[in-house]
Specification:
The complex is a heterodimer of chains A (103) and B (819).
Chain A (H helix, E strand, L loop, with lengths): L3 E6 L7 E7 L2 E7 L5 E5 L13 E3 L2 E3 L6 E3 L15 E7 L2 E5 L2
Antiparallel strand pairs in A: 1-9, 2-3, 3-4, 4-8, 5-6, 6-7, 8-9
Chain B lengths: L3 E6 L3 H13 L4 E7 L11 H5 L13 H6 L3 E4 L3 E5 L4 E4 L4 E3 L2 E4 L3 E3 L12 E3 L3 H13 L2 E5 L3 H12 L3 E6 L11 H13 L3 E4 L3 E6 L5 E6 L4 E3 L2 E4 L3 E3 L2 H5 L8 E3 L10 E3 L4 E3 L7 H15 L13 E3 L7 E5 L8 E7 L4 E8 L2 E8 L5 H10 L37 E3 L4 E2 H11 L4 H8 L9 H12 L21 H10 L5 H7 L11 H12 L13 H5 L2 E2 L5 E3 L10 H13 L4 E4 L5 E6 L4 H10 L12 E6 L2 H4 L7 H12 L8 E6 L13 E6 L2 E6 L11 E6 L2 H18 L6 H8 L1 H8 L3 H15 L5 H7 L1 H4 L4 E3 L6
Parallel strand pairs in B: 1-2, 1-7, 2-3, 7-19, 9-16, 10-11, 10-16, 11-12, 18-20, 32-33, 33-34
Antiparallel strand pairs in B: 4-5, 5-6, 8-17, 13-14, 14-15, 21-22, 22-25, 23-24, 24-25, 26-27, 28-29, 29-31, 30-31, 34-35, 35-36
Helix pairs in contact in B: 1-8, 10-12, 13-15, 17-18, 18-25, 20-21, 21-24
Classes of the chains: A mainly beta (103), B alpha/beta (819).
The structure holds siroheme, flavin-adenine dinucleotide, iron/sulfur cluster (SF4) and FE2/S2 (inorganic) cluster.
Chain lengths: 103, 819
């Protein structure tokens, strides 16, 4: 099993914003919602590869900046009627620090 | 809490739509039981016509399969007719004895076909056209018999006749009135329709009254006789002579009926526990027979069933579209005219085109279009909105696209003439056939649903008109364009842009959460459509007070660069008025080499674009460019873009005014201006107009005696020529008038409305009254513009200097432990 890896302090991600993490499994977008929940998705839209980290976050959904697909932050699943999925990564918040687990 | 019980009688289009709307609002409020006399789940009745014509099957037109009822916990009694409503004990009883109790009851029993009392009407082979059973019988008869007669030359009758003809029968349409579809068409249009149906092999007998259906040897109908003695053979008679609201059940329960079950504006009958929607209803004396109004009723009714209690149904204007493939026919509103109305008519008999517009006091009240219905939705919208058409009256007849080049669909303006393989949406590569298929298989009725399912018209929107036409001809009168005047901002709210703007101003709201709370937003934090709009309304209404929220901006405005398809960015430094210097060019060249910029190009806005820069490099690039004095060109923003200039009197032998310096002054004045949509200006030094001022938001043309000002031009999706605003003398006046016009647009425009759309909405006369004729108001507008632009700082410099802002561009490196 892989380990939790330290990403950054929660403060370093804007609320309803995101940051990009460079990893051996490609770029990962780490999102912070308005309620300070954190999520991680492969930074590649299932539609045409748009960088999801650059999208707008509403509730637990991110809108891809390129053509507006909406993807659930929890599981990376596209909101119907679009079909597709961005790989999701385990992310947790612990005492103001964001942690990530690679798959 | 124990759930209440809702019983629905009638498993048809209106009743089930109401249940769907209710599930959206209050999914857990009721235990729902539905009774339906037909042995099918809810299906799309209007598509019985293509089923008859052999274009679709019954399976294709089911709207809510049995799974849907099960998944939503709805008890469905199929094939059970309710005979009794026991209002005292609040229960209904079906003919087989099944009972259900209710706290609230919804009647949606639809209509019954009207069969005139003609002797022989009970003979086998005499049927109406209403449901799957009728359709099946028609299809079966067509296989074994030859002669069909359709009684009734209305919408339904003609669709039946066309279908039977497609199935190989010899079809005669008998109509009592002097012309076809008299309730939807005037005589001229009806005659055109008749000839083209005749060309497809249909026969017509007009002004004929049937006296009797005659029985043949086999026991089924064999012929029919008219009052004038004429007899014709008929193995099948389809009576489509009209429908009557089905009020039998309501009447037996002593609910007040008068040409329908009488309801008030909340869709409530005279018994407050009993609601009614659909064709069975009479609202303000009108019973509707098309789907669009019934859906509106269903929405209002659901709102009350959910105990929200705010919606009111106020009646509908309807439009009609005959669903016979290849025939292009549209009518809406009062198309017959009459006292106090004017008519504008275009009639080209050999071209097969006829259009009539009926006007009353500068509003359009009705329209009939035959042969070219491209502008049907546009006219219908104006009828519904009661829009004042005074300013466009002279070209109203030529349609929405009369003077413009609407690009992206090969110049096609009429969907009817396009083959299925023609590309409708150039952005997303969607063909006509794809759209028709999606509408039919997914049971779509609204433009937004078509956008979601097919992506057509969801990007630049230039093909919206075409998609609307396709929708209209596929679902007939079931399509109504959204009310443009008070269209909701997005799915998160019921409120329109106008209402939201006014609330922000009048109630002094200065944050997005405050707006959402004050206006009862339905979602906790909005969506990608409403947040940018709200952010703009706040900062433009309360400059200096409302704080800009970068997270509520689209990425381009957040990152101050344009995102590219591969996730890199493009950088366009400002070149004031299109002017540059050797030092600026040198710094651009250096940056391009240092960061290995793959593409350098001149933009359509007359400046240099550096494309393909990694986000991490943006602050470094800006720092280098900034050293040479270059700042953001805002090529990414709903903001001031460019002021294009020509060389003007500074150099040109024809120049009358110094357009270079005028352009630079304007661009410097407007630096940092956010607006509902992007804003582009141009200044030409003489009427030869080398800066193309005629298609800009503000165009300035130098003439010997001063400047001519033009506004509301557009060069993008829809080419729109700017309109003359006024003439001024000095440079100062150009700044004041342009500034005042743009400030008016900033204060009144709706988000994503270009100046051309804004001026089309409010009217140029009103704009002139506000800022040309009224000098005081003009000065105030101008001052408010300057006030909100003061202290604006270049966003690139800020991102370079402030570490918290710079973070947006930095990639986080992590320490991975070797596995
Ligand atoms: C770079 C440029 C094309 C070029 O290489 O020349 C350009 C590029 C884009 N234009 Fe444009 N437009 C560019 C000049 C124009 C012009 C010509 C002009 O400005 O003189 C027009 C027509 C004039 C007009 O606006 O009336 C133009 C009409 C549009 C439209 C249609 C707007 C409309 O209201 O009809 C869009 C779509 C939109 O804004 O919603 C658009 C959108 C876009 C976007 C931002 C698409 C997007 O949202 O990502 C493009 C970004 C490309 C990228 O990858 O960076 N672009 N675009 C031009 C930049 C000008 C500049 O220096 O700022
Ligand atoms: C062939 C055809 C083509 C059409 N084309 C168009 C078109 O292009 N555009 C358009 O806008 N409209 C069109 N219409 C009209 C449209 O279909 C109707 O307006 C719409 O279906 C009415 O909806 P409703 O729910 O009120 O009635 P229905 O859809 O008829 O539903 C009522 C249901 O209630 C059931 N019912 C009645 N009484 C009882 C009872 N006592 N107990 C249990 N169940 C009962 C009926 O069996 C029926 O299933 C067309 C109609 C037909 C027949
Ligand atoms: S630059 Fe403009 S015209 Fe060219 S592809 Fe992009 S949006 Fe379309
Ligand atoms: S790449 Fe994300 S929507 Fe197209």
């Amino acid at each position: 099993m892989s380990e939790w890896i330290k990403v950054c302090a929660l403060d370093e991600i804007a609320p309803q914003g995101s940051r990009v993490v460079e990893s051996s499994q490609g770029r990962i977008a780490i999102f912070r919602t308005a309620e300070d929940k954190v999520f991680g998705l492969h930074d590649k839209c299932p539609h045409k590869g748009g960088p999801l980290s650059q999208g707008m976050v509403n509730g637990d959904i991110v809108t891809c900046p390129l053509h507006g697909w909406k993807l659930g932050l929890k599981d990376g699943e596209a909101v119907a009627p679009d079909k597709g999925c961005a790989k999701s990564f385990a992310v947790k918040l612990d005492a103001g620090t964001v942690w990530l687990k690679l798959n | 809490m124990k759930k209440q019980k809702l019983v629905v009688v009638g498993n048809g289009m209106a009743g089930i739509r109401c249940v769907e709307e209710l599930m959206k609002l209050a999914p857990d409020l009721y235990d729902i039981t539905v009774f339906g006399a037909e042995p099918y789940p809810n299906y799309n009745r209007i598509l019985l016509s293509p089923v008859l014509a052999g274009e679709m099957t019954i399976q294709d037109i089911i709207l809510n399969p049995l799974d849907w009822y099960r998944d939503n916990g709805i008890k469905l009694y199929m094939g059970k007719r309710v005979d009794i409503i026991d209002r005292a004990r609040r229960r209904v009883i079906a003919s087989d004895g099944t009972e259900a109790e209710y706290d609230r009851l919804l009647l949606a029993t639809g209509s019954t076909p009207f069969i005139p009392p003609i002797p022989g009407k009970e003979l086998p082979g005499v049927i109406s056209y209403r449901d799957i059973r009728d359709t099946d019988e028609m299809i079966a008869t067509a296989k074994s018999h030859t002669h069909a007669v359709v009684i009734g030359g209305g919408l339904l009758g003609l669709e039946a006749a066309n279908g039977l003809r497609q199935r190989g029968m010899d079809v005669t349409v008998v109509h009592l009135m002097p012309w076809l579809m008299e309730r939807q068409l005037d005589k001229t249009a009806a005659d055109l329709l008749k000839s083209s149906l005749e060309a497809r092999g249909l026969k017509f007998l007009l002004e004929k009254q049937t006296e009797a259906f005659i029985r043949g040897e086999s026991g089924r109908v064999a012929a029919l006789r008219f009052k004038d003695g004429l007899e014709i053979s008929a193995d099948l008679v389809v009576v489509a002579a009209g429908i009557r609201p089905d009020t039998a059940l309501a009447e037996s329960a002593k609910l007040y009926c008068n040409r329908g079950i009488v309801v008030n504006d909340t869709m409530q009958t005279y018994d407050p526990r009993v609601y009614a929607v659909g064709e069975c209803v009479a609202h303000r004396g009108i019973a509707y027979g098309l789907v669009a109004p019934l859906f509106e009723q269903a929405k209002v009714c659901a709102n009350h069933l959910a105990n929200f209690g705010i919606a009111r149904y106020q009646g509908s204007v309807t439009s009609t579209k005959l669903k016979v493939t290849g025939i292009d026919l549209f009518s809406a509103g009062n198309f017959m005219g009459g006292e106090g109305t004017d008519e504008i008519v275009l009639h080209d008999p050999s071209g097969g085109v006829y259009k009539k517009l009926v006007l009353k006091n500068d509003t359009l009240v009705g329209a009939v279009l035959y042969g070219d219905t491209a502008d049907g939705a546009w006219y219908f919208q104006m009828v519904k909105d009661a829009q004042n058409i005074h300013e466009i009256r002279d070209h109203l007849m030529f349609g929405q696209n009369s003077s413009v080049g609407d690009v992206g669909h090969a110049g096609n303006l009429s969907a009817a003439t396009m083959p299925d393989s023609a590309e409708v949406c150039g952005c997303n590569g969607v063909c006509k056939g794809d759209i028709v298929k999606a509408i039919k298989t997914h049971g779509l009725f609204a433009l937004d649903d078509v956008r979601k399912h097919t992506k057509a018209s969801s990007s630049c929107g230039s093909c919206t008109g075409l998609v609307e036409q396709i929708l209209a001809s596929t679902v007939g009168g079931a399509y109504t364009p959204a009310q443009s005047k008070d269209k909701a901002v997005c799915g998160c709210t019921e409120h329109s842009h106008g209402v939201v703007r006014a609330a922000i101003r009048d109630r002094h709201l200065i944050t997005i959460p405050a707006v959402m709370q004050a206006l009862d937003w339905k979602t906790p934090s909005g969506c990608a459509s409403c947040r940018p709009a709200l952010n703009y309304y706040l900062i433009s209404s309360w400059p200096g007070e409302a704080k800009d929220d970068p997270q509520s901006r689209f990425i381009n405005e957040r990152a101050h660069a344009n995102i590219q398809k591969d996730g890199t960015y493009s950088v366009v430094p400002r070149m004031w008025g299109g002017l540059t210097t050797p030092a600026e060019l040198r710094s651009i060249a250096d940056v391009a080499e240092k960061y290995q910029v793959p593409t350098l190009k001149m933009t359509g806005g007359a400046r240099v674009d550096l494309l393909g820069i990694k986000k991490e490099d943006l602050p470094k690039v800006w720092a280098d460019l900034g050293a040479a004095g270059l700042v953001s060109g805002h090529a990414y923003g709903k903001s001031i873009r460019t002021v294009k200039t020509c060389v003007g009197a500074e150099h040109c032998r024809f120049g009358t005014q110094r357009s270079l310096s005028m352009g630079v002054k304007l661009e410097r004045m407007l630096f940092g201006m956010w607006s509902p949509h992007k804003v582009k200006l141009a200044v030409s030094g003489c009427p030869r107009n080398c800066a193309e001022a005629g298609i800009k938001d503000v165009g300035v043309i130098g003439v010997d005696s001063g400047y001519e000002l033009y506004v509301a031009g557009n060069g993008g999706i829809k080419t729109e020529v700017a309109e003359f605003l006024c003439k001024v003398k000095s440079d100062e006046e150009v700044m004041e008038y342009s500034g005042a016009f743009l400030q008016l647009y900033r204060e009144e425009g709706y988000y994503l409305e270009r100046t051309c759309h804004y001026v089309a909405r409010v009217g140029l006369d009103r704009v002139k009254a506000a800022m040309v004729d009224d000098a005081l108001r003009r000065k105030e507008l101008y001052e408010r513009l300057l006030f909100s632009l003061q202290d604006y700082e270049d966003p690139w410099t800020q991102a370079v200097q402030q570490p918290t802002l710079r973070r947006e561009y930095e990639v986080i490196q992590i320490k991975e432990v070797a596995a």
